[in-house]
Amino acid sequence: MHFRSLVLSPIFLLLAACQSTGADRSPPPQATAPAAAPEQTAPSAGTTGITTPSGATAAPTSPATPPFDDWVSRLKVDALAAGVTAATFDRAFQGVVPDPDILAKDSAQPEYTRPVWAYLDTAVSSANVAAGQTALKGNAKTLTEATRPYGVDPHIVVAIWGIESLFGKNPGDDNVISALATLAWGSRRPDVFRQNLIDALLILQAGDIDAADMRGSWAGAMGQTQFMPAAFRKYAVDGDHDGKRDIWNSLPDVFASTANYLKAFGWKTGEPWGAEVKLPKKFDWDLAEIDTTKTVAEWSAMGVRLVHGGKLPRVASAASIIAPAGHRGPVFIVFQNFRTLLAYNNSISYALAVAHLADRIGGGGEFVAQWPRDEPPMSLTDKQDLQNRLAAHGLDPGEVDGVIGPKTRIAIRQFQREIGEVPDGFATLVLLNKLRAAKSS
After folding, report:
1. Most buried in the list 17, 75, 308, 328, measured by CB within 10 Å?
2. Is the predicted pLDDT of residue 424 greater than 50, yes or no?
3. Model-level pTM?
């Protein structure tokens, strides 16, 4: 899972820091990993620097951050109280020092984030579709056996596998203990990482993996489908029945663990994730939010149809309408299984990428409506300016944080109605410029 600011919530127990290698451009296809989805940019924080034993200057930390050795000593007391032996702790921390590169990544706040269509271009490239089809065919028996007990679609598991680690080729090579210790000691969210660090030590204590082989992302996510240690302890499964839960090397364990997580968060066997739809001309755009749910019958009565005009699928789960790029882009009806994907990674772009890649691996086509690719990306500064100007206009965008969440979209819709535009809540530079003009007029 891609890295965003962490909160103490189950949806953030799984994280990853996948890096983009660029979109597929020519055959033969080479699978590529997407960069973090647009919603997953972590905010920065003011800090001060420290020096590691190697002489490198680490990324800044809080002035209150204790010396690392003192911090480790206090951590050891808590780890032993949690059931970690002194021998396991000492082996795990042998040679561990703060990693300045990890602290720099944690403190980074990219000024620009990729729009949803750019993320999907890479995540659901022709290369990844072809690689996913090969992976599905080559592991069909293992996938079927691993996912059957949980009723999860193998295509979805393969799609997660592909997006998280390029089908096992790029699971991350950071030492998880070192990464989590660095973040628990010097990051902006120490408590979350500290608990995951203790969980990682308990995994070592249980014998599922050796410390040297516990590798993962810089944020501490582990294995081929990127479980944080807290999630591993709760949801990882011994799929090959060898006495260990090995999501680094055992595909039965990888597939079963991923399916078990999805099932635990509400996966509905046999239900689709959603579908691309066409909205009626007088659609109430205030309803286009993931948290607004209605029955399929209610949406149908309002005139929502499949993109080609057909009736909506008969699904018992509550349904929502989402328009990730506003009225100019594809619009979707989504069901419980889409929300389950959000529990794996709380990003609309990520969940849509997994769902679409799974469909494409299964032979489905591309989305019908086109993305508004002529829209220039908005920087973090632009989004903060938008929120500030909405507030100055007498509207309530919520916190001025550069995150276009529900409150900001409500304020955008109010302004769009005021100027006679489709009130889809989609933030654009054009809209920002109109707010600027409204202020100056």
Report:
1. 17
2. yes
3. 0.88
